[in-house]
Amino acid sequence: MKKILTFAALFAGLSFAASAQQQDSVKKDRAEVRQEMRHKKHMRGDRMGRMDNKTPEDIAKMKTDRLDKELKFTEDQKKDIYAYHLDQAKKWKAKSEERKADREARKNEMKAEREEFLKLLTPEQKETLKNKMAENRKDGFKRGDRKDRQFKRRDMDRKPVEKKAEETVNVESSNS
């Protein structure tokens, strides 16, 4: 009997150790994949360059050339595709400039609203607010805190209270 219990305990210990190692290797694999994806994203940005810095003609030529390598266009197709990409790039640039102008307008509006708010405060309140904001900047943004706040806000740990069907029927009959 002792031998059986000894073998059972040994087997349980070995299986536990094996599963723990397997989970560690899965975590390492995920971390490596995540790191590799970051690297690829970074490299893609370097390879393509910033589209903001390019003219619509450069963008259209780059896209057409890249597709031409894969699809091997005829000269007529190349001209048509270049014209299409040029049109798209011009539209994209116009929208980009519009978004940039909107962003600047919002920024100026927020600055004006902030100045208006500060006019309402006393000098002591302004100093308190300034210190609080400096402290927040010093701590920086922590992702974990954001997630914790989200769960607290939603009360995820509490289960909703369910009313029994009988109670609702009794309430309806007493109201009649």
Automatic annotation (TrEMBL):
Keyword Signal: yes
Signal peptide start-end: 1-20
Region entry Disordered, spans: 20-63, 92-176
UniProt keywords, alphabetically: Signal
Domain of life the protein comes from: Bacteria
Keyword flag Signal: yes
Compositionally biased region (Basic and acidic residues): 25-36, 45-63, 92-167
Protein name as catalogued: P pilus assembly/Cpx signaling pathway, periplasmic inhibitor/zinc-resistance associated protein
Source organism: Sphingobacterium daejeonense
